[in-house]
Every structure is written in structure tokens, then in C-alpha cells.
Fold each of these.
Amino acid sequence: MARYVYNFGDGNKDLKDLLGGKGANLAEMTRMGLPVPPGFTITTLACREYLRTGSVPAGLFEEVEEHLREIQARMDKRLGDRGDPLLLSVRSGGKFSMPGMMETILDIGLTDTSVLGLAARSGDARFAWDSYRRLIQMFGRTVFDVPAEAFESELTGARAHAGVTSDAELGVAELQDLVRAYKKVFHAHAGRDFPQAPHEQLYLAITAVFSSWNAERAVLYRRQERIPQDLGTAVNVMAMVFGNRGADSGTGVAFTRDPATGRRGVYGDYLTNAQGEDVVAGIRNTVSLHELATIDPRSYRQLLSVMERLEQRYRDLCDIEFTIENGKLWMLQTRVGKRTPAAAFVIAGQLVDEGTITLDEALQRVTGEQLAQLMFPSFDPTALPTPLTTGVPASPGAAVGAIVLDSAAAAAASGPVILVRRETNPDDLAGMIAAQGILTSRGGKTSHAAVVARGMGKTCVCGAEELVIDTEAETVTVHGTVLHAGDIVSLDGTTGRVYPGAVPVHPSPVVRYFEGELSPANDPLLAAVQRLMTHADHTRRLGVHANADTATDAERARRFGATGIGLCRTEHMFLGDRRTLVERLILADDDTERDAALAALLPLQRADFIDLFTAMDGLPVTIRLIDPPLHEFLPALEDLTARVAGAEALGRDPGHDAVLLTAVRRMHEQNPMLGLRGVRLGLVIPGLFAMQVRAIAEAAARRVADGGDPRPEIMVPLVGAVQELETVRAEAEAVLAGIGGAPPIRIGTMIEVPRAALTAGEIAKSAQFFSFGTNDLTQMTWAFSRDDVEGAFFSRYLSLGIFTASPFETIDTTGVGELIQIAVARGRAARPDLTIGVCGEHGGDPASVRFFHRTGLDYVSCSPFRIPIARLEAGRAATADATTSDSR
Ligand code: ADP
Ligand code: MG
Ligand code: MG
């Protein structure tokens, strides 16, 4: 017979798949001999069976009865006993905690008769009747979907009638009346009487917890948190203990360290004479856990020792729920506690100091995402006003600006603005780009606004449903406060809070530390960051380079720990006042004109490279030859057409504009992404690549002459066939041969076209290094262009589950990743000493970095601000075998 039920004494903390997090941890505490009320766990397997077939698996309730008998024996009470009833709680709990998403029912077993027994036995009629009314309420809501307000309005009525302000002041007679009223409410909505058979209550409750797995909010929550939908929940059934039995009883929650800062010492809240949920519900004011030392010193001391043992067992911050019944402490829950990113770093460092975990393990306790959060600017915590409202924290950061309600206004605004919309769509793109931050009243983490904002690295709060946006009146109303377009608001994309006015923004101390402006001495967070980064650098196998085009970026990248430039784009060197030179190049009618244009560009490029080699002295600098289509350097077709038409209308000669317009028309492409760009340009425009190669080599020679150590590498973009590379290479080598005094310069290629990945074996014969251009490779593999699709259908794809993350943020390991693996294998087979890196934005994405480590790349390259994240994740990837902690 399948075994669906485990006694708490039979499980342990590593059985989360089967017993859920709550069940596994209750089992662990029971095994440790901690005071846990007796109980058992119905496995997630039973739930999955139930969800699959629509009925409870055969034999389940028999097993439940068997285990129930054990509880009854241990508690010396029976379920449904008239004189001394056993009461039970039925608690949901899946593998991953889903706070508030699923159901728990307390006080199962109370009926019209057993409530009398409980009253007599406990000598506390008030307590018995209060428990009974709680049961009807929770059971009605959870099992029969009775609207919560139906009970709430009875409760409010009862308080008003008795002339009291809190539930705790209701007397026995009033609670008895309330029970009668609740039973009527129950009947009206459920179409039947409140069940008077305790076993039926239990079975119905178990089934309701199974079903709550598929409640709409639970499904949505899992989608957002990327928790698989098919895990199912376990159900924990355990004997009730009562914190609501008078002044020597109570309930509380506690943390073994401060989950906000990581500071050592216990933290928590305690509520006298109350049952579990009252603490969270904020019904009455709690007191700090430290006051328990005065209220009940014995239980307090016992609690401290329990917490210490839990920390030793879990080797991490634990949070716990406990109840004290008539001076006796009971443990009701524990788990590895959630914490802020700052606390994650601080605690990992402390646990190493305390000898609890190794540095390798400490690296597994923090993530690149957490480090990224610590690197965003934040609001000055001492200057926070009361928030106007809170939405879904969709894209982190701190943004301040004036409200604008439409995207055209945002795009046209001169100062910083916050774009406020019900929801966004592709037409809002220009406004989103212009805004400091985006605020919507609809949609969650996969809404259009959220997806696009994250892609742009822009602060976004979405789904702030309390906002009433009136675009006609140009107002935003929240709780009666009316804001007008132009009013300043502040958005915290990390917490989802929206503040009135301009909240002062703090630069991130972690960034200031990386910049060398703050010392880690005497700052626990910075000291922990330093320690873990040092260890990550020590253990990682992947190199971390930077995508940097200017000396300023290169210097920052170096401060942030880059050991090379993996991608220097040369196209910015064609912008600004140099555009006219590029125009001359494009418009050249013959070789002489073209050579003159190139000769004018040469010294400018050379000077740029000298600066870059100076900033990166002694480190490799991979320079990509020009990549974008040349018409990107000419004015836009629409602008030129308008200018020419305008001049003609006025009877003036459009002059140079007419020449440009002809060129732009000639060069117009249907799909520029798939057009004349990359290596194709170099093969079609004589002398262009040769000029760039010359600038690189002459700059290097100059640096050597000045005593420097330049290490340039030349990278050819968009190669799809080895012959392309060979042709460019021959031309480059001829140029290099004519320049004395430069160090040897390696020539390699980007792998960013699927054909290049597939023919990597051929290409490697001509390339000394590969660098994956994962942006293009993703676009070409999926056959969509980022600029066109991110706003158009990504949110739909994410909510349909076709993507679990945007493939432009996190590498698509199954598709694009397969091409990368093929290219690595074939490239290395042809040339064992081939250097392989990646220079797409994925190089700074935590999950992608781990994939690149597994795939055996030599380095990742990313934007300067992502470098610490890549270093950390590369270290984590290298030490991934160490014990992992699951605080999800
Ligand atoms: P959640 O997962 O939402 O925290 P829980 O299953 O932990 O839900 O239960 C909700 C509340 O009921 C908690 O405060 C818990 O401590 C309390 N509770 C659960 N079981 C018992 C019990 N057997 N005796 C007393 N209180 C309980
Ligand atoms: Mg709980
Ligand atoms: Mg590219």
C-alpha cells in the first residue's frame, strides 16, 4: 500500500519534496526532541493524486485514522470527545513557502457538544466559545468559500452591541450569540449546516487544503516566483495548543538574527492571550520578544536555547512560530528565514566567523541578484514619508520625477518624469525610455511595463491597484489624495512603495566601496561583501572582462575588478562631430575621396585606442571592428525627406540634404538586422577595416614606445563562414606586417550567427579566439529582433509560460545554449588553445554566468556595473557543490 502519511517523528528536514517545507521542519524539530505538539504530515504525493483524479486517494483516510489514534494516545484525548475533546490544526505547506497563499484551519474538532466539554475541562468557557467561533469562521471561509466579510460584519456587530473595541473583550454570552449568528451565515452560504461530526470536519479540511493549491492567487504567485505548478502541497495535521488561555499564554514569531540587517541577537514579536494568526493579522499591538523575558522568564530562556539549537542544526538564520499555553512552550514552525540582501551578506560572513560554515558555503548563501539589489541607489531611509500606496516591485531602483500620464508628454518632457499609466503597451516605448521610472495600476511582474522596464534596467512599480488614474482630468487619486500631472512622486522599485514628493536618493554604499570611496573597516555589510568577493575571485575559473568603449568606462571596470575588455565597440568613435567624416566616406564616388575620408578618421581612432590601452595597461583589450550598418550614421529617412520637401516648398535648393537623401534611399534596408553589417561591411567597403586595424596597431606601437604594455586583440563581427574571416584576416595581417613596434595582435571572431556556431570547427582554424555575441545569437536563433518583440509580445509569452525569463536577460540554455555548446566543442576540437568568451549582456546575468561556467568558457564580459555580479556568480558556480541553503 502506498504510504501517504508520515508521523512527525519519521520525517526530517531534507524531505521537503515529499513533506513540504513546514512538514519537513516540524519533523526535524520533533527528532531534535523540541516541544512540538504531536502530529503527522500527508504527503505532496497524496495531493498530486487528488488534483489529478479529483478524489482522495484510496486508503488515505484510513491511514489518517491510524495516525490520529497515535496523537490521541499521546495527548490522552479523543477527537469529538464530549468531555475532553482533542482539537487539531490542519495546515498547508508546499516545498516552497508561499506566504498567505494557501489555507490553515485551526480548532478542528469543536462541535455544539464538545465545546461544552472544552469549557468545563479548561474551566474557561470564554476560551472554548471563542475557539468555536474561530473554527466556524475559518472552516466556512476555506472549505465552503463563505465570504470573509459575512463573518466580519457579524463580529463587528457583536463588538458594537457589547460596546467594546476588541474581540478579546467579548464575554461568554456574546460569543455564544456570535456562534449562533456564524452558523446562520454558514448555512446561508454553504447550503448546509456546519458539520457536527469532527471526523467529517477533518476530512473536509484536508481536501480543502489540497484544493487550495490551485486557488487562483496561488497559481499566480507561483507563476511570478517561478515555482513549478505541479508540486502540490503537503497537509500537516497536529494537536492544537492554545495561546489564548489567559495571561500565562500567548503566541509569537521570532528570528534568530535580525532579518533586515543581519545583526546578531534575537528579534520577534509576542502577543499575550492570543492565537497564532492574531500576531500577523495585527489585531492587537504586539510587544517586542525581549519583553517575554519579564512576562515569562522560564519560557523565554527555553525559547532562546531552542533558537540556538535550531541555528546550529540549520546552520543559518531561522524564523519560528511558537505558542505558550499556561506557561508551557510549544514550537509550531521553523524554517530558514527570508532576509534582505544586506542581511544575506552580513549573516553569511558572521556564520563563517562563528565557524558554522565554510567560505565556500558562504558563497552559496548569497546571490548575484542580491548583490545587484545592493548596487542600486536607494532612498534615504531616515527621510521616508508615509507611502501613498504599494504596488508590485517589478524592476528595482529609486526614481524621482514629475507625474506624466501619457508617453508623448514623457518623451517631450525636459526634466525627470515618472510615467504613470493603467498599463503600458508598445506605443508607450518612447515614453518609457524617457522616464526615470514607470508606475502602473494594473498587471504583475510579467506585465508589459515590468518586462520592458527590466530590459531597460529602469525602475518600475506595477499593479498599484489603489491608484485611480484619470487621463482626462490628468489626475491620479489614491485614498482621497489627488495628485496632478506635474506633481513629484518617488518610486521604490525594490519594495514597490510609492511616495509623495521627492525623497532624497542615496548612492549605494556597495558601489562606493567598489569605487574605492568607502572603506570596509567598521562597516559589517561592506566587510562581508569584500570577504565574499575576495573568495569568489579566489575560487572562480571564469575570467570577468568588461564591455567598455571609453577610457572612463575602462577605468571604472578595472576598479570593479575586470581583468580585460571583452568588447570595445568602435562605432561610437564614428559619432558626434566625426559623423561628417563618415558621411564623406559613404558618399565617396571614387577611391581618392574614400581614402581621404579614411585618412581623416585614422588619427581620431588611434587617439581613442591610445587612451583605452593606457587605462587597461597590461590587460587584454578586445576590439570589435565596425559592426552596425553605415546608414545608421546618416540622418533618418523621415527627417531628410521632410527637410528636402520643406526646402523645395520654399523654392530653396536642398543642397547637401538632397545628396544625403539619395544615399539614404539607396542604402535603405527592409531588415537592417539581416543586412549589410559586420564583416560584410568590411568586405564591401574597401579600406574601412584596414584603417581600423592600422589605428589599433599604431596606437599599440605608440604605447610600447612610451613604456606601456598594450594587449589589443582584433575581433571580427557577424562571421558566418570561415572564408569571410580568412579574407579579413589576410588584409589585417598585411597591414600589421607593415607596422613596426606593436606587440603581436591576435585575431578572432564573434560567434553570433547560427551558421558560425555550426561551422565553428572550420572557423576555429582561422580564429585565435571566439567571443559569443549572445544578443545577436539569441535574435537569430529565435528569429525575432529585440527592439521589435520585447514590447510586442514578451509579456504574453511569459504569462503563457513559453518563456520562464526573457531570453535577452537569461540565456536560453536549451536552444541558444545548445548552439554555444556545439561551437565550443567543435572550436576546441579544431584548436585546443582557442580562447572562448562571451560578450553579450548575458555575461552579467547570474543564471547565464553559471551556464557559461558549466559550458567551459574562459571568460564572460559585461557592462562595468555588472562586473561584481559576474565575479560573484562565477565564484558561486565554481563552488556550487557545497551545501546549498534554501531560503525561498
Ligand atoms: P502560514 O503558513 O500561513 O503561517 P500556518 O499553518 O503556520 O500558516 O498557521 C497559521 C497560524 O496558526 C500560525 O500562527 C500558527 O502558529 C498557528 N497554528 C498552526 N497550528 C497550530 C496549532 N496546532 N496550535 C496552535 N496554533 C497553531
Ligand atoms: Mg506559519
Ligand atoms: Mg552582434
Note: The longest helix spans residues 591-615.
Amino acid sequence: MTRSFEKVGVVGLGTMGAGIAEVFARAGLTVVGVEADHEALGRGRGNLESSTGRALAKGRLSEAEQAEILGRITLTTSLEDLADADLVIEAIPEIMDFKRTLFTELDRICEPSAVLATNTSSLSVTEIAATTGRPGRVVGMHFFNPAPVMKLVEVVHTVVTEDGLAEEVADLARRLGKAPVSVGDRAGFVVNRLLLTYLNHAAVMLENGLATREGIDTAMKLGVGVPMGPFALLDLIGLDTSYEVMCVLFQETRDRRHAPAPILRELVTAGLLGRKSGAGFYNGEAPPTPPAAGKPTVTSVAVLGEGAEEFAARLGDAGFKATTTQAATDATEDADVVVALSHTPVIELAARLPHPRRLVGLHLVGEKLAEVASTVLTSPEATCAVEGLAKIVGRVPVHCKDRAEFVVDALLYPYLNDAVRMYDSGYATMDDIDAAMRLGCGYPAGPFETIDTLGLETVRDGLRALYAEYRDPAFAPAPLLDQLVTAGVRSIRGLS
Ligand code: 3HC
């Protein structure tokens, strides 16, 4: 018999819990929101009011509708009020002991037929289920921040989940207007495993001084089209949550890339948790725009590399004396700066020039971004001039060190590689992984769609370059990707 979910409990009314309560109430269900004490309950009420107030202010909700939604939500500090709930979903902090204690209590209080769900970001649903006398009726229901906006819900089943229950919970998610993806119980599930690994990589990159926080955020937004750069997103998710997810991932994989970046621990210890505490990587809601590059003071520019003719022509139109050259020869001798259009490091080229201080690498990404790579020999004046030139050709410059794949591809390719490994492990289908990243994170395309757009060989070669530079085994191309390139396969999605 198909279960009907009409009365739902939400335990924990922080950012996620309040968002989840709102989602259920908007779909017409009766909701009981529980917090530990009156102070936390007050904060939870505030979260609910500000989220629905936002929709009211934008004219998408009338006052009567807002009142109706909030009227479906009863707030309490007593778990006993969940005794007749059909489903209880937990959204308390990511600490296993807290969750186990809570589920033991819920198991005692709720009807034996009730389903207990956890919104855990990465902890083992199986371990949580095992604390109850109904492990078959405990599942993960993982929402994404902001819960009222992001379409995805990961429905997590364990090896002991009752037959058919995951599908019933997926139907419930559809009733809420969400798109469910059904997954097994593995640390980080689909999205956090891929997303948080990438975000952590960005934090490591920042610590290594590859580029600035604003530079990395700008590069990813303009270069990949993601809705938020990694540091703005870490602030949205919460640095404490992100740190905890990384700890759980590392504990399971022992992969060095899953070890939380030290800067995360430092910020969390300092109480800088992101938006929820008012400050994190950024000190406010919106990341500041990077300072504009000054008008270049140079007059003559030598351009080499792929696309040199077109780039030089654009500069010529803008009044510069721009020449092209295919090699680091005399043609560069008289130029104020030498622009090497390249997607690989330019130090070898610089070292062959008579005036290596004048050479700057420039990687044009997509239609809007220019990564400006200075070598250990490049002068600050040359860097500054090339940033200005990038602006003149209509690009936003992001300065970075002269390292393999610079910023965007260095972050993008390992994420794509991780997705290939995830698929190859049999954990999820390509369609599910693509849908999860699009609907859970607002990405313009899923990883397999991106691989097909970029070309399998480009991604494989980029990974090889990253591996050669950093010697991190995780950057070595996934064997499946390597084999597909060798076999001449052009579309990875053609496999599914
Ligand atoms: N609560 C409710 N609604 C919100 C909201 C919030 N906190 N933030 C934004 N919205 C709504 C707005 O009202 C607006 O609605 P409308 O389109 O109907 O007018 C819509 O979302 C777009 O908002 P804005 O125009 O203000 O801002 P943006 O266009 O910049 O979008 C964003 C904001 C939706 C957050 C977008 O930047 C985005 O998709 N970012 C990526 C978020 C992401 O990756 N989330 C997943 C994180 S991982 C996770 O949660 C898992 C966990 O386990 C760690």
C-alpha cells in the first residue's frame, strides 16, 4: 500500500531546516518544526519569515499566501509533538553522535510506520538507521541550499531500506516540485562528493597563491558559467558544513584532495562561517568586484601563439602597434610587451627571450574571460599592461601564476575526472550525475555534457598536464577516459 505523507516534522530550523519546512508547507503539507530551545526556535521563525518575506517583497507571494504557508507550520521545542507525523526529516548539525541520539528519540516517539529521514550532507545513513528499531524505514532526503530554490533532492537508500520506500519518497519529492535522484549510501552522495572536492581544491589553490579569491570566483563564473564562484558558494553553504563534509569524505577515501584545506579550519575556528555568521571568505553578502585594470601605458605589443593574428588585429584597431610572431625571435625585441596566447605555461618561452620580463601568458577562456599568467620573470608593469589589453579586447582579466591549466581548467578538469570515476564505479548513471549537478548547483551543464562539449581528448590532455605539474594521482586521467580517447570515441554520453 502506498503511504500518504500529510504531516511532516522538521527537526532543526537553521538555514536548511527552515528552507525544507517552507518547501513542505508550500506544497500544502502540515509541518511541525522543532528546535532545541526557545532561542533557536526564534531564529528558526526568523529564517522562515525572511525567506517567505523575500518572495513577498518580490511580489511572487501575497500576504495572504504567506500567512497560509506560515500557518501550516507549527513551531515547538518538544519532539513529542512529532508522535503522529508520517515523516520526520532531520536537519541538525553534521555530528554523528547528535544524529544518533536524535534518531533513537524519534524511533521511540513516532509511530512504527513513520518514515525517518536525514538531510545529512555526507554522513552514513546506514549508521544513522542502525540506531533505530526501523532501519528499513530510514532514508536520506538531501536538499540543496537554498532549499526553496534548488530543484534537486538526493533520495538516499541503504542496503536495508524497505522495497519501494525510496520510490515513495521520490514521489513525495516530486509532489514538492523537486526532481529526485535516487542514490546509494556513500560519503557525499553524488553532488557533495563532486562539488565539495572542487570547492576544497579552489581553497587549496587560494592558499598556494595561484590567484586571488575574487580572481578565482570571477574565473569560474565567466569561464564555466556556474552561478557562483567557489568562495561565494562556500560562504553560502557554510564553512563549518563544508569543513565537516570534507572530513567525512577524507575519512572514507584517505584521498589527499579530500583533506580539508587548512584555511577552512582556520576560518571556522575564528567563527567566520560564511553568510550565516555574517562573514566567511567574504565579509558581506556580495563578493566585491575585482579592481579594474588600468589603461595600458604600452604602445607596441608583440603577439604570438594560437589566434595571434586576430588578437593583434583587435589591438591594432584600438591604436596599438601590434605585430605577430610565431617564435620568440627578434620580432619581440622592440615590443613593450610580448603576449603569448597559450593554454600552457609560458616560462619556457620567456626563458628564451632576450627580455623575459616583458612576456606575459594570456589564455582566452570562452567569450568573456582572459587568464593573465605572469611567470617568475615577468615584471609587474608587463602584467598590468596585459590586463589592460585584455580589457581592450572585451575580456575580464584574471591574474594567475604560470601553472598548468591556470585557474579554470585546473579546477574544471579534475572535477570532470571525478565524475568519470564515479560513473565508472557504478555508483550513478551519467544522466543522474548530469541532472544532479545541474539541478543541485545550478550548473549550466552536467559534467558529461561538459566533457562532450570540450572534447574527450582536450580533457584527457589537460589532466595529463595537471598530473605532470602537480604529481597528484587524482589528476591522472580516469582509465575510462583514457581508453575512450584511444578508441577514438567522441561522445562519452554515447556510452550510456
Ligand atoms: N531563499 C529563498 N529564495 C532564494 C534564496 C534564499 N536564500 N536565494 C535566492 N532565492 C530566490 C530568489 O528569490 C529568486 O527567485 P525568482 O527567480 O523567483 O525571482 C531566485 O532564487 C534567484 O535569486 P536572485 O535573483 O536573488 O539571485 P541569483 O540569480 O544570483 O540566484 C542562487 C541565487 C539561486 C543561490 C544562485 O546563485 C545559485 O543557483 N547558486 C548555486 C547554489 C548552489 O550551488 N547550491 C548547492 C550548494 S551544495 C548544498 O547545498 C549541499 C549541502 O549538503 C552542502
Note: The longest strand covers residues 359-365.
